[in-house]
């Protein structure tokens, strides 16, 4: 690899990808010399066409490339026209709008990787983000600990990293971290989206759905947008339960589709249709109720996430089995 461009919109996820790439490069080439720079502190591109003083390859990591300008930008563009085979250049950018030529040449001469945040509704993606933070600190955490971090940190990678670090430091002598260890250190709940609320409803988990709702509202999510996310997820459940293919339901084949099928089967006969009708009622309530939107949503989410026999009185203590 002579040239690598990493681009994305989250600083922490970009940093973690840089770390992973450098770790792999150093594992393959222990004598590699790595120098890290920010665009703001450079006027000229460091020398990449001569051998390191220690005799090995040189790797230059250049951060903040989205803001590169002037002579430095011109030098990087010229270098990318004919990069040295004896050196590595890693470019890190939060976007490529102002550096299109650099992005194009970097991809042509080497590799471009778009480091993307998982979608708000991608549970497995966010589980991986949390799990990787524990693994980075060489700690083991079970599924309950990962779920607890997600409840507290929401979908903010920096908050996830900070909270994982705090939990690991506080419980340094624990072999496998559990939800109780997380809850003993971390308080509150993080930013969540309407899809997190929808997932709590789909899992028949009133507590999780209400925590996600509060996180979504605190993050500024519009009430009708939350209802839209829940409606979208419920329609997916209805489609899957009726035998729709992954493509027809807007899902990827594999684990995500199978999980959705399992969630759909957990609803009692007629319950999904009742949920869909209750969402239509909720939409009208939000547009015409005298109650605060947050109250209207909380009452509805509690009903929607609680298992029920259709036609039976609402019982918030109903069994989830």
Could you say how many structural domains there are in total? 3
Q: What's the average pLDDT?
A: 88
What form results from the Cα inertia axes? elongated
The secondary-structure class comes to alpha/beta
CATH fold group of the largest domain: Rossmann fold
Order of helices and strands, N to C?
A: EHEEHEHEHEHHEHHHHHHHH
The second-level CATH architecture of the largest domain is 3-Layer(aba) Sandwich
Total DSSP helices: 14
Radius of gyration: 24 Å
In spatial order, strands of the major sheet run 2-3-4-1-5
Structure description:
The chain is of the alpha/beta class. It has 14 helices and 7 strands. The protein has helices spanning 11-28, 70-81, 100-109, 123-136, 143-153, 157-170, 179-185, 194-202, 206-218, 223-241, 246-249, 255-265, 271-288, 293-305, and strands spanning 3-8, 33-38, 58-63, 87-93, 111-115, 140-141, 176-177. The model has no long low-confidence stretch (mean pLDDT 88).
């Amino acid at each position: 690899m002579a040239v690598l461009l990493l681009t994305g919109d989250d600083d922490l996820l970009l940093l973690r990808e840089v770390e992973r790439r450098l770790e792999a490069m150093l594992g393959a080439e222990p004598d590699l010399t790595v120098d890290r720079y920010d665009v703001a502190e450079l006027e000229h591109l460091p020398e990449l066409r001569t051998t390191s003083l220690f005799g090995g390859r040189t790797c230059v990591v250049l951060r903040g490339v989205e803001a590169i300008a002037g002579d430095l930008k011109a030098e990087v563009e010229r270098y990318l026209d004919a990069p040295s085979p004896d050196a590595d250049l890693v470019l890190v950018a939060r976007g490529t709008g102002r550096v299109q030529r650099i992005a194009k040449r970097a991809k042509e001469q080497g590799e471009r990787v778009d480091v993307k945040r998982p979608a708000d509704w991608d549970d497995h993606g966010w589980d991986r983000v949390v799990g990787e933070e524990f693994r980075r600190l060489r700690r083991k955490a079970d599924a309950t600990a990962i779920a607890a971090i997600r409840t507290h940190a929401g979908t903010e990678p920096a908050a996830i990293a900070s909270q994982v670090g705090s939990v690991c430091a506080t419980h340094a002598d624990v072999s496998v971290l559990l939800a109780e260890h997380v809850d003993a250190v971390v308080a509150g709940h993080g930013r969540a989206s309407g899809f997190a609320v929808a997932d709590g409803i789909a899992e028949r988990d009133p507590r999780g759905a209400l925590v996600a709702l509060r996180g979504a509202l605190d993050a500024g999510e519009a009430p009708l947008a939350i209802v839209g996310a829940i409606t979208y997820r419920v329609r997916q459940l209805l489609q899957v339960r009726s035998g729709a293919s992954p493509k027809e339901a807007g899902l990827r084949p594999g684990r995500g589709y199978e999980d959705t099928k399992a969630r759909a089967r957990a609803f009692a006969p007629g319950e999904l249709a009742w949920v869909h009708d209750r969402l239509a009622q909720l939409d009208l309530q939000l547009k015409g109720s005298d109650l605060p939107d947050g109250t209207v949503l909380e009452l509805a989410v509690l009903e929607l996430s609680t298992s029920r026999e259709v036609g039976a009185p609402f019982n918030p203590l109903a069994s989830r089995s």
